[in-house]
Amino acid sequence: MEIRHAEPADHARVAGVIDDWWGGRRMRDMLPRLFFTHFRDTSFVADDGAGLAGFLCGFLSQTYPDQAYVHFVGVAPERRKSGLASELYERFFEAARSARRTSVHCVTSPGNTGSLAFHRRIGFEIEAEVEGYDGSGESRVLLRRTL
Amino acid sequence: MEIRHAEPADHARVAGVIDDWWGGRRMRDMLPRLFFTHFRDTSFVADDGAGLAGFLCGFLSQTYPDQAYVHFVGVAPERRKSGLASELYERFFEAARSARRTSVHCVTSPGNTGSLAFHRRIGFEIEAEVEGYDGSGESRVLLRRTL
Fold first, then answer.
1. Interface with chain A: mutation pick from B13, B35, B37, highest number of A CBs within 10 Å
2. Is the minimum CB–CB distance between A59 and chain B shorter than 8 Å?
3. How far, in Å, CA of A82 to CA of A88, rounded?
4. Predicted pLDDT at B125
5. Shortest CA distance to A33 belongs to which of B27, B106, B120?
6. Is B12 part of the contact surface with chain A (CB cutoff 8 Å)?
7. Which chain A positions have a beta carbon within 8 Å of B67's beta carbon?
8. Mind listing the pLDDT tens digit for each residue in A75-125?
9. pLDDT for B22-38, tens place per residue?
10. Residue A93: enclosing H or E segment and its boundaries?
């Protein structure tokens, strides 16, 4: 398994599998190529012999100079429970620390108990649950981890 | 008409109109709330007495310290041809110059002749047309403007 910084060409590889990895939901539009071009130092791709194993897209907040934000993390269905998502987060934490960030933030759905349990395990705490967070009427859980 | 920096609460206002402003296309997923939270200093909202008149979401590239990128610009249908999109871009150019960026980049569709003509008028040049740019098999025109 090799984890490296994302490159623009990785976008097409991720875009080709992301809807499947999310069980058929249409996710692709939420992850435009710009993340693989302009946020390479805080985005990562994991490859193994079989191809793309996982990815993480994040960035350093421009508004809050002490914060970093994770937009998307995905692991191939056959690679889940392997610790890969934690490793991707560790790489992101290192990159954020190097940029003098003191907290990492992300957002998930209140019904996604797997995601909530995972984030707690790697040190995230729930900051708030916000109704209508994304403008669609759905609520979202805001998570925060101190670095 | 007031143009000011974007705030997180603007996301719901933009999300509520964006599909209509794009003629019914589903655009909302491409503009998550994070742009209104973490890229406020390079994102702008225009309000007039009637409500939301336009917006621009952009950011400073992390990968390329001399570049800034515009992700989305929208103007209410009844406000088009008023110069508002140019004003929004001018605000972005100022913000990018303040952050010592020397070029601004964006992407549009080759068939969107209105968008291409507009960007040329405000100083953009075509850098390249790239097939399959966004992973969907569609091509995109990459635009660049020197600051």
1. B37
2. yes
3. 12
4. 98
5. B106
6. yes
7. 38
8. 999 999 999 999 999 999 999 999 999 999 999 999 999 999 999 999 999
9. 999 988 888 999 999 99
10. helix A84-98
> pLDDT tier at B49 (50, 70, 90 boundaries)?
confident
Q: What is the pLDDT of residues B53-112, one digit of tens each?
A: 999 999 999 999 999 999 999 999 999 999 999 999 999 999 999 999 999 999 999 999
CA separation, residue A27 to residues A16, A18, A68 (Å): 11, 6, 22
Q: What DSSP designation does A25 have?
A: -
Q: Which two tokens stand for residue A35?
A: 């993340």
Pinpoint the alpha helices (H) of B39-112: 84-98
Averaged pLDDT, A48-53? 92
Sheet of A67-75: strand order equals A2-5, A43-48, A51-60, A67-75, A103-108, A140-146, A125-130
Q: What is the pTM of this model?
A: 0.95
Cα angle B137, B139, B142 (rounded to 5 degrees) comes to 140
Q: Are B1 and B48 in contact (CB under 8 A)?
A: yes
CB neighbourhood size of A96 (10 A): 25
Out of B59, B67, B135, name the one closest to residue A11 (CB): B135
Q: Do A30 and B33 touch (CB under 8 A)?
A: no
Q: How many CA atoms lie within 13 A of B22 on its CB side?
A: 17
Q: Cα–Cα distance between B53 and B73 in angstroms, integer?
A: 11
Residue A43 and residue A36 in contact, taking contact as beta carbons nearer than 8 Å: yes
Q: Which contacts of A122-129 are long-range, i.e. CB under 8 A and separated by 24 or more positions?
A: A122/A86, A122/A89
